[in-house]
Amino acid sequence: MDVRILALPYDSGRREWRMGRGPGHLLRAGLEEALRGRGHRVTAERVEADAEAGGEVGGIFLLARTLAERVREAAPAFPLVLAGNCSAALGVLGGTGPAGVLWMDAHGDLNTPESSRSGFVDGMSLAVATGRCWTGIAGTIRGFLPVPDESVVLAGARDLEPGERVILARSGIATVEVPRVREEGVEAAFGPALDALAERGDRLYLHLDLDVLDPTEATVNTFAARGGFTLDEVEAAVRLAGSRLEIVGATLAAYDPDADPEGRVPAAAARLAAAIVESAGARK
Fold first, then answer.
1. What is the mean pLDDT of residues 228-238?
2. Residue 176 sits in which domain range?
3. Is 56's pLDDT higher than 90?
4. Does the pLDDT of residue 53 top 90, yes or no?
5. What is the rounded CA–CA span in Å between residue 117 and residue 32?
6. What's the domain count of the chain?
């Protein structure tokens, strides 16, 4: 399969800072070579923009606009984005066009400027993607359209702020929680939600914040929270999603190498990247 890796080395609009160091680190650790070793044709490139000149909010959306164009240009290759922040999702959705969303993350990313206690814009990424905030500037991303709640599955979220819990409870977003997976298994827990997405359309954007993994598997960043999925569970969920829908783009996000002194994340990320690409290729 033809794969275009797009590395977006920014965190909160700052280049090569904190989680912005993750994309380059994963590439240096051999993620590209791991995919080639499985028979895929892979090219990798950085996505750069003068994000800091626009401030945090302006920079984040400048990067999303830039990424959307690069995703669009990558076609027909499969776009695999390595990103510091989850806001990269906005660019991928702009580049691929409308799709259902499987958002796997320890956090809800559903804050709005009114609900957030920290003001961390990246914690608003899914709220922006579903049209809850920053609608004006999000509209500058060519090809981006807000995703209806009913076309979103949020999986593995366990560290939500009070305001996010209210937003989620009032939303039409489907959830898959870790305890249910432990009780019922991956297929029984994810299957109904994925089937509901498939009824609305056959295209899927897969967003994988690596901190959906439990820290005992790998400590991905300083926001990591206990009670996450195992690596086996995430891989199984990815492959199940690919068996039901066409994965048209994917993001691996939020790896801070400083939080991973044992260096366990790159191997996990390479394994998940392979599962994503193989699942996407199976339906082509």
1. 98
2. 2-282
3. no
4. no
5. 38
6. 1
The two three-digit tokens of residue 125, written as one number: 């990424």
Count of Cβ atoms closer than 10 Å to residue 179 Cβ: 10
> 3-state secondary structure string, the chain?
CEEEEEEECEECCEECCHHHHHHHHHHHCCHHHHHHHCCCEEEEEECCCCHHHHHHHHHHHHHHHHHHHHHHHHCCCEEEEEECCCCHHHHHHHHHCCCEEEEECCCCCCCCCCCCCCCCHHHHHHHHHCCCCCHHHHCCCCCCCCCCHHHEEEECCCCCCHHHHHHHHCCCCEEECHHHHHHHCHHHHHHHHHHHHHHHCCEEEEEEEHHHECCCCCCCCCCCCCCCECHHHHHHHHHHHHHHCEEEEEEEECCCHHHCCCCCHHHHHHHHHHHHHHHHHHCC
pLDDT in tens, 2-48: 999 999 999 998 999 999 999 999 999 999 999 999 999 999 999 99
Task: Find residue 4's DSSP bridge partners.
Answer: 43, 79
pTM for the full predicted model: 0.97
Give me 155's structure tokens. 């999986």
Average pLDDT over the chain reads 96
Band (51; pLDDT cuts 50, 70, 90): confident
Average pLDDT on 158-185 reads 97
Q: What is the pLDDT of residue 55?
A: 77
Residue 246: which CATH number?
3.40.800.10
Q: Which of 81, 5, 74, 75 is nearest to 44 (CA)?
A: 5
